[in-house]
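Progress report, Aim 2. The chain analyzed during this reporting quarter is listed below.
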Amino acid sequence: MSVLSPQRVVAELLVIILAAVFASQGYLNSDPSLTLVGKEAQWLTNSAYVGAVSLRTTGRLSLWQPL
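Predicted structure tokens for the chain:
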């Protein structure tokens, strides 16, 4: 087994990060008027909203989702 050099680790991480950024460009739209399509949009946004409100009002995330 060969020992990984720091340069090789950095190069491999850079390739992985660049591939992830390139592959997820379609999901990086931060337009506030963007509407999610599909049936899963409601429960995804509801969970995010409940988490944000809970964190803002109580300073912590609840252990269960009441809605």
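The radius of gyration is 19 Å. The mean pLDDT is 81. These observations will guide the mutagenesis work planned for the next reporting period.
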